[in-house]
Amino acid sequence: MQTSLSELFCSVQGEGPYVGCRQAFVRFTGCNLKCNYCDTPVEATKVCKFEAEPGSNEFLELENPLSPEKVSEMVNSYSGLHSVSLTGGEPLMNADFIDLLETEAPLYLESNMTLPRMAKKVKDKISYVSGDVKLLSSELLEDPELHLESTIECFRALKVTKDRDCFCKIVVTKDTSADDIEGVVGAISGYISSLILQPVTQKEMQPKPGFLLKLQESFLNDIDTRIIPQTHKMWGCL
Ligand SMILES: C[S@@+](CC[C@H](N)C(=O)[O-])C[C@H]1O[C@@H](n2cnc3c(N)ncnc32)[C@H](O)[C@@H]1O
Ligand SMILES: Nc1nc2[nH]cc(C(=O)O)c2c(=O)[nH]1
Ligand code: SF4
Ligand SMILES: [Mg+2]
């Protein structure tokens, strides 16, 4: 089994409760959604850009597709890793490949949580789940009811346990509706350790600070709720 990656690099986690933790980032190509705020190209690429020396800005180009052995070897070439971020694109589209990875550091899944069958396949391999909920109003969803069901089923499969952390992250824009967030969070709150409200990075799409603070207040009684913007972009790292 082989798959295509767009890039593989070492940096620190720039989002959510694990901000600052040193990670290898494994970026898969392809996605089943089309979020209007998405900051990442998801198209398939001919080569995988591999930054062998962290922070060097020098990239080797490895021809796609790559085997799980080769990807594990590249990840294991980095030292001091807290975990390995599986991202994309949508990493759960590569559940069979993920199942074959043999990395020394534990796996951290960054997912849109819409592919429950795939979530069930990888659940025992994953130590950290950054479950990025896509709101019903935020994309062109064919079937909002099915979307919500799939989201709940994914969180149930990958829920927080003594061996796995699972938190929910929601990108908030100026068009986000509080009811929309409350509906989804109410349905998954039993499966997560915290809720992260992530204001969208593009200035022109950002919500007002007062809206975020009100939202946070409405959840705080039930769940550890934090407002954390993307931090890696502030200091220009990958
Ligand atoms: C590019 S996605 C890839 C993983 C997966 N498809 C997902 O959406 O979680 C990685 C993370 O970047 C976040 N993200 C993408 N565009 C963003 C933006 N403009 N502002 C803030 N966060 C953004 C996503 O919400 C997600 O948490
Ligand atoms: N530093 C850094 N942190 C991140 N957290 C989530 C990312 C992603 O694109 O999945 C990301 C990323 O691309 N870089
Ligand atoms: S699910 Fe993730 S990768 Fe796909 S479009 Fe949305 S933010 Fe981008
Ligand atoms: Mg990113």
Automatic annotation (TrEMBL):
InterPro entries cross-referenced by the UniProt entry: 7-CO-7-deazaguanine_synth-like, Aldolase_TIM, rSAM, rSAM_sf
Entry keywords, A to Z: 4Fe-4S, Iron, Iron-sulfur, Lyase, Magnesium, Metal-binding, S-adenosyl-L-methionine
Keyword Lyase (UniProt): yes
Residue intervals of the Radical SAM core domain: 18-238
Ligand binding (substrate): V12, Q13, G14, R27, T87
Domain of life the protein comes from: Archaea
Top-level class of the enzyme under EC nomenclature: lyase
Note describing how the cofactor binds: Binds 1 [4Fe-4S] cluster. The cluster is coordinated with 3 cysteines and an exchangeable S-adenosyl-L-methionine.
GO molecular function annotation: 4 iron, 4 sulfur cluster binding; carbon-nitrogen lyase activity; magnesium ion binding; S-adenosyl-L-methionine binding
Binding residues for [4Fe-4S] cluster: C31, C35, C38
Known role: Catalyzes the complex heterocyclic radical-mediated conversion of 6-carboxy-5,6,7,8-tetrahydropterin (CPH4) to 7-carboxy-7-deazaguanine (CDG), a step common to the biosynthetic pathways of all 7-deazapurine-containing compounds.
Similarity comment: Belongs to the radical SAM superfamily. 7-carboxy-7-deazaguanine synthase family.
Protein's UniProt name: 7-carboxy-7-deazaguanine synthase
Native species: Methanolobus vulcani
Gene that this sequence comes from: queE
